[in-house]
Amino acid sequence: MQQRTKQVVAITSIVVLMGFLLAQPIKGLVNENKATSGTATGPQVTLESVSQKSKEGLNPSIIQEISAIEDELQHAAEPEKRTLLQQLATKWDDVNKLAPLGFIYEELAQLDGQFDDWLKAGDAYRAAYANLQDTLTAGVLNDYAINAYEKALALDSANLDAKVGLGSAYVTGTKNPMAGIALLREVVRVQPSHIGANKSLGLFSMQSRQFDLAIDRFTTVVSQQPDAESYFYLATSYENIGLNSEAIAAFEKSRDLAADPTLTQFINRKIDELSK
Predict the structure, then answer these.
(1) Which of 248, 208, 202, 243 is nearest to 223 (CA)?
(2) pTM value?
């Protein structure tokens, strides 16, 4: 049930994200000579601040459970701190609140220096800022993600998932997006079918309006891991180069996999428009 809830939350935001994605070219790649990170004048973003924000709208009983663990952590000795942090990570993951989850995994990583915790921290930070409209906070979280991925790669320099995360974070929030693209291309040279790398490159191809390249990337993704979001991006790419029949088929796949009323209504309208 929790996984289903996470899927619905993700799917119902696709339409908004798609509009934002196509309206914002990748800085440094399209129609931009400069790119800046949001952290230069960014706000203070801490575990406490994101925890407080993330509790808004949650069930009071869940808030109480999370706050109780946070209170215990204030006085916990190191041997029990890891257990409490793992419990807190589970609570935030269950309600799909990714910003505090990133901080928790980073604290876990700082305790034991484990690769998996640094990678999870980077992934959580990156997923958190991808859905933010607050560009200053997003910039701070982007930098936190970069730090986490760099720490992960210091422990396992050949790990492809960490390279994908770092490459994606470079593209979205630094003055050197091409370094990120280079990392992603390095991954697909090693593993051409890598889902994360193809998905990121597909999204960046859409932003630079290279929809034919995006189609190749998302076709690779859905051939291995068919999901509503990737089919939606594939459909949108087909639509933008006038392949309406292909767009309709991909939109139908997205609709059927999501089984979400909001997205279904939007896609049905798109299909009607494309069928005319």
Answers:
(1) 202
(2) 0.85
